[in-house]
């Protein structure tokens, strides 16, 4: 393996055009070769085996680097924000429990129109009632759901004011 070092370094340098990165590739190649020495088949070309490891290591690092974002100052990372998901889980449970409290016909009409994205006409056909009846059931279901969730209908649905303020930074 030591005899292959100059050739490995030259090959790594031709791939990266950076001495430091080439040295890191050669070191990584030797580490992998020693780790997986039991996979080397005696009698085969050790140089070819080492060059294959180096090439595969380079390709893996190249694929990973394509997903990396160049952000030396950390400014990009500082702008990334995510709303906490703990509250959405609790909101989901509240909605699920409130839906269970709706009368079956209202719940069925509401879910067909809002979740299943059926038109009022299609929902009416599925339920075997008039379109006006479906519209009425959906409206009453929405009102009752808002009341059960203590949510004013004119307020935006989404993160609460504390979460919105935290995301404004």
Largest sheet: none
Beta-strand level of the residues, as a percent range?
A: under 5%
> In the CATH scheme, what's the topology name of the largest domain?
Arc Repressor Mutant, subunit A
Poorly predicted sequence stretches spanning 5 or more consecutive residues: none
**Mean of pLDDT:** 84
Helix content range: 55-70%
Tell me the number of strands: 0
Explain this structure.
This protein is an all-alpha fold. The chain has two domains: 2-69, RNA polymerase sigma factor, region 2, helix turn helix motif (Rna Polymerase Sigma Factor, Chain: A, Orthogonal Bundle); 86-156, Winged helix-like DNA-binding domain superfamily/Winged helix DNA-binding domain (Arc Repressor Mutant, subunit A, Orthogonal Bundle). The chain contains nine helices and no strands. The chain has helices at residues 5-16, 19-35, 46-67, 75-79, 86-101, 104-115, 120-127, 131-148, 161-167. The model has no long low-confidence stretch (mean pLDDT 84).
Sum this structure up briefly.
By secondary structure, the protein is mostly helical.
Task: Draw up the topology in text.
Layout lengths: L4 H12 L2 H17 L10 H22 L7 H5 L6 H16 L2 H12 L4 H8 L3 H18 L12 H7 L2
Helix pairs in contact: 1-2, 1-3, 2-3, 6-7, 6-8, 7-8
What key phrases describe this protein's structure?
69% helix; mainly alpha; Rna Polymerase Sigma Factor, Chain: A; Arc Repressor Mutant, subunit A
